[in-house]
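Sequence only, no structure available. Ideas?
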Amino acid sequence: MTLVRYEQIRHIAVLSLNNPPVNALAYELRRDLAAALDRALTDACVQGIVLAGTDKAFCAGADIPELGTPKAAQDPNIFTLIREIENSRKPVVAAIAGICMGGGLEIALACHYRVALSDAQIAFPEIKLGLMPGAGGTQRLPRLTGLQWALNLMLTGEAVRAERLMDTALFDRVVASNLVEQACAVAMEVVDAGVPPRRTCDLKVDEPYAQSFLQVARNTVRPKLKGGDTAALRVIDAVAASVDKPFEDGLRLEREAFATLEQAPYSRAMRHIFRAERLASKVDGVPSHTPVRDIRRVAIIGAGTMGGGIAMAFLNVGIPVILLDRSDADVERGLANVRRNYEATVQRGRLTAEAMEQRMAQLTGVTEYSAIADADLVIEAVFENMDVKEDVFKKLDAVMKPGAILASNTSRLDVDRIAAFTQRPADVLGMHFFSPANVMKLLEVVRGAQTAPDVLNTVMQLARRIGKVAIVSGVCDGFIGNRMITFYLEQSMVLLEEGASPQQIDRALEKWGMAMGPFRMSDLAGLDIGYTIRQRQYAEDAHARRSPLADKVFEAGRLGQKNGKGWYKYVPGQRNALRDPEVDALIAEHFASAGRTPRTFSDEEIVERCIYALVNEGAYIMQEGIAARASDIDLVYLHGYGFPRWRGGPMMAAQTVGLSSVVRAIQRIRSRGDSWFKEPAPLLVQRAEQNLGLD
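Reply:
I predicted one. Tokens follow.
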């Protein structure tokens, strides 16, 4: 079946792209479009050509999975198509509806004329993947829109409605309806006028202060670049060529720049994330036709900070919420906190007062479990204690209607044990939100041994509805994120207890790209959280590694930012982490009592030990089937733990360095006497030996 529908309306051939969902320029579509163009160009009865898409998409551009593969360059490639269109002696008109982005926009620019629906979405999103337009976009767009619009589209990557570009020469008509008919009319006007088609490449960029404008653009973007990202500067250089170089020279410069960016680690990481976010929704044992339960009302147990944040995530998309806590005072406090958070959003201009009141009107507070019996989903967000969870889930099991989904927001407890507190384990799973739950995008969806496929599918679909990146995890202590971070934090403590300071460790990891080093992160979370987790581990495992220095810091009354002193000290009302002599004294006392001399660490060794501890545990997690794929682990760390986006996640970072190098580094660390660094995961060793990636 062809992916391009061919029809002739009087003397105009209408070629309609039909490669759902967004007409991505996969090889098969390019092949069929080339054949349709050849048919129209060689048919003497055809005097003009209209190139159209569907109502939803003209063309969304490159097929991302093809990028960097031989298939992307296989003829007919995008350059072949553009050359055929632009050099056609018959007028070619693009009829643009829906999405017109990337390579699709470059094809439209090569057409001689363009007609668009007013709400068509126009964009060059390549910058978001660390790339730039690579098929003439940097040369043709400035010739039609001028420099300001061209750079705005290419440097932001954001879509704009066609009607906003009516004052430029990009569109010959912007219409409200009858798109193909209007495009055919434009083609016939050109035919009847007897003039040759207007080629975009023959136009000139007429900007009297072009060089000054371009220099301002360079000065604006340069300070914002991170992680080796040079795409914005290369876009500006290519656009500059459209002003002062012949068209073909500009094309060559653009193609060379694109090829360089495509091979750069930054773009590889961005494309990895793009693919990962699409793969994450594919869950083993949950085919696309799995039914979904209707979620019209949500109940949340626990009106504290986490419960309130979760409530806001649902209220923000119009889902009514019932907030339950033990007393009227607890409920009122929770409702007031939600209102206060919304009021702050209103003050920042991100929400209207009317919208705030609409959301608050959908929030109800109760103290009796019977009041939530008809909710379709209930999320427990109470204290992280199994006895408390048992009490809550037994009560839920007694009152909730059949078919209601029962979820726990536990961050590390056994979801299968929690499910066993009920007579309906198939309806139970974990929904681990990250704080603040109304802001953080990550949601770990914990699949219990008996969780029903439709329950899992419902929550995955619901997560997308509330704007979360949902990652499925199996059941283990800490799931994916917190299990891995335990080993990262453990290595930071080993480093501290051997001689590195909190400041050096944080500085080394932040310089490497982490949003926050482990000690600043612990202060933000609260040292009481870590202390509670350690005490539980000590009680459950006699062989668990002890962290006496961390325990002493907490036992000295240091809770972190919440009381102004943790590993650092904090000025009231500020979050600047300041070195504290009291902590220095506790560290010195630790070395003195142990009779040890602090050793010196390089920043490189600090990064290796902490990051490779993450990677190694991630490989164990994959090996055990807790995570389905390495890219899922990367998303957990990108969206939940401040991992540098430009590195693509811990598992991607390891593959960029080389798995063999990671294994050797772990073996080197262990050979120096760190028995607490786990042996390289067998999966990691196997993939390194086979010279394979982790996915």
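The longest helix spans residues 603-623.
Hope that gets you unstuck.
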